[in-house]
């Protein structure tokens, strides 16, 4: 049976069973960990935190956790967010240094402060004060990625409308006419984010994201992952959504928020995802990105933008129907 037919069948066949775990990409171990947390009596927040933490520890595809995506200075920094769909509380961290468990720090921001988002060195100091262990996030792999980038004249990069010293193409930069710049090719192995939605047996929802951001980003850059409504969003009266891809573009449209609001009005999850992606495509037809969505009954869907080298988007679902972390995919449009 063709996978697309199976996907459609699961979406349309009867009432989906709760609880539900769904996450971006083929990160099955994250789904298994989240599901085990639920079955052990943990909350949906516990499940999201543990599932995303598993990816952080495993360095999922090099795009989550320590030792990946070094910035222009060669440092790995982390972004993460967690959201409670019952209370609408959010905790998030951006540009986090030295702490491997970014999603855990995000939850600490939510539960130990009245704030929503902490960033940079101050976020790292907060984490250490809360008992998180300070560790070097650099690995041999991240050093090699950074070294090869330097050898290649710091190309590709995220600079525009600037001029570097001609003898030092890596900078320092100043305002001016951009020298010839290599186009960044889409790398489906630089996934940017794990996004996860967990719905409990009684319909309570939590969502979260974790990432080490864009490879060779400018120091201090924070992407969509820790921004509520962009990287992920949930409301136990509507549903949950989480995105992955080019965060600098996606965060401008709050696609996760839009998708949840559409589901609140009765829009089917896959249509809600597609509508949110379509809104971005109007302005950025070649952007790289995808979205997963799930409503309060546990029905789910996904959508992605079709670009060269990226025609299908994988995601993982774990519920009582699958009884295992099931890898699924959706055709991009």
TrEMBL record:
SUPFAM superfamilies, per database record: N-terminal nucleophile aminohydrolases (Ntn hydrolases)
Q: Is Signal tagged as a keyword?
A: yes
One example of a Gene Ontology biological process annotation:
proteolysis
Write the signal peptide boundaries: 1-16
InterPro entries for the chain: Ntn_hydrolases_N (IPR029055), Peptidase_T2 (IPR000246)
Please give the catalytic activity noted in the UniProt record. N(4)-(beta-N-acetyl-D-glucosaminyl)-L-asparagine + H2O = N-acetyl-beta-D-glucosaminylamine + L-aspartate + H(+)
What does the similarity note say?
Belongs to the Ntn-hydrolase family.
Tell me what this protein is called: N(4)-(Beta-N-acetylglucosaminyl)-L-asparaginase
The record lists the organism as: Umbra pygmaea (Eastern mudminnow)
